[in-house]
Amino acid sequence: MGRILIVDDNKGVCSLLKELFTMEGHLAKTCSEIERVHEKLESFKPDVSIFDIHIGKCDVLEFTKTLKTRHPEMEIIFMSADDPDECFKGQRFIKKPFDIFKVKEYVNKILLERVAV
């Protein structure tokens, strides 16, 4: 069982992913405001966080680099309807619209990799 934080200002996406991961036996929480992410991370301590790259007026890539210094054990997955540009090359990325079964497999694989290390 993993702990997954979904960060997206689209509450429909948050609800869908939370339900999907909960049905898989994971603990899932959502955050629809970038300003509340630090609070959620401190209280929930996720194994994986999924960030929409267009949330608020924030540079999500820079924001998550800062988060990784405070939470180095947390895996980060970015998601967007846009194609990943050069900044996101080499990062874990989910393209919207997504197939929920592929997202489930992708996240489960990341969680299994964490256990194997």
Automatic annotation (TrEMBL):
It comes from the Bacteria. GO terms for biological process: phosphorelay signal transduction system. The modification 4-aspartylphosphate is found at residue 52. It holds the Pfam family Response_reg. May play the central regulatory role in sporulation. It may be an element of the effector pathway responsible for the activation of sporulation genes in response to nutritional stress. Spo0A may act in concert with spo0H (a sigma factor) to control the expression of some genes that are critical to the sporulation process. InterPro entries: Bact_response_regulator (IPR050595), CheY-like_superfamily (IPR011006), Sig_transdc_resp-reg_receiver (IPR001789). Keywords: Phosphoprotein. This is Stage 0 sporulation protein A homolog. The keyword Phosphoprotein applies. It comes from Thermoanaerobacterium xylanolyticum (strain ATCC 49914 / DSM 7097 / LX-11).
